[in-house]
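Appendix B, example 12.
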Amino acid sequence: MADTTHPLADSRAKSEAGFVRAIGLFDGTMIVVGSMIGSGIFIVAAAISRQTGSPGGLLLTWILTGLLTISAALSYGELAALFPHAGGQYVYLREAYSPLWGFLYGWTLFLVIQTGTIAAVAVGFARYLGVLLPSISPNSWIVHPIALGSKYAISLSIQQLVGVLMIVFLTFINTLGVRLGKLIQNVFTSAKALSLVGLIFLGIFVGRNAGAITENFSHFWTIRNAQLIEPGANFLRSLVPTVTAASGAFGLFVALGVAQVGSLFSADAWNNIGFTAAEVKNPKRDVALSMAFGTVIVITLYCLANLAYLCTLPLVQIQTAPDDRVASAALNAIFGPTGAIIMAVAIIVSTFGCNNGLILAGARVSYAMAKDGLFFKSTGALNKKGVPGTALVYQGIWIAILILLRTRHVDAAGGVTYGNLYSDLLDYVVFAALLFYVLTIIGIFVLRAKRPDAERPYRAFGYPGSSALSNSDSRYGIGDCPSWVAGLLALGMVVAAKRQDDFAAISEFSYRGAACCAPTML
């Protein structure tokens, strides 16, 4: 097969000469952990428990998510070691296929995936800050909604202003250099991880509820109150039946698949460390290891957090938690009304750290695209601190626009309600995001055919013909099977295509585990 990719050589390394290699293994792991943990883990258990209908189904969903996420992260490790350059997944797709695929991914990331997620996190941060400061309200207008046609509007509320100010502050901080950015990431990631550990400890040991434990674990697989699941796309409704988790093996299979929508996106963003590879001290080793260690840490915490919910609350209370705030319900059961304040503080810290990591990493993709002539030329330059300052500014401006733009809905009675544009965009892009994941993992096979002799410090275990041998050849001793990962992600694409409506509900507060409230609070 002809090699039509960019040269790996010195030109790429020279173009990254201005970056400061300040990110070590611990820092990289903190970027992974901090970018993954937003507030989805505090919320999506409610939707998952309604979909699967049993405590066993709730925990099994997270276990499957963990296997898939860790496996995908380890599969990316080979590509990260092969291409230790700024841009991460953009570079992998460009080198495996063509610049066109890198272009499509990079622009989708900039316009929706990364920036839409950051916007959701920022609004979620403002919502929970409003728990402590009630004046931060979505209905306290600085600029009342101005209609932009029949379906869209622009507005500025106190809540939106706080979200925009968060973006401005973190963008400015990250223009001052990667060392300051990583320091903030390390501090806030450590704080949020400790808060999650505290929630787990309180749920399992302090708030241990004998009645809840008996109810949940004596009837571990008994399905109750499972919601109906029907295809979201109209053309599929004549082909795929409406089922519940209680509808036999097929119904349970569908329920577990649909439940992955919330759990997988609560465990997303582990690939962000690849975007910053040019600033990692030892990228051929530490990018892959950061992905591995970070995903293992987060998935372990997620599984234990759901175990803590089951030790504190009967399943029915998890399914019916107000606004799906399961963690708040658990702390409320332990501390009373004070629990809501404790949870608000934890989510404020969590979302702040999450956005810092996403802002830090995302601008590196725009930088890499500009170097290839696929983005605004000015974003391909580093500032005096060795970071893509212009790319960070462009990213921040677009995020602020996404926060200010609203969707406009007029009901039959003429009443007008407003939603968030970024939420609608994220609903539509979920299929594309999963497609890029599948293509990237398949790219491992493509690149082994195109570049069989390229140096691979780490090889993804499971490639046909390599088997255990490739694992033993791995310099760092971590392995995976990219083929089954690609297959499971492909299944996820089918689920996503069928369940856009479920994702619409979840993305408002849980895309990449980031934003914070149910749609009813808009």
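The mean pLDDT is 85. The domain at 31-521 is CATH 1.20.1740.10 (Amino acid/polyamine transporter I).
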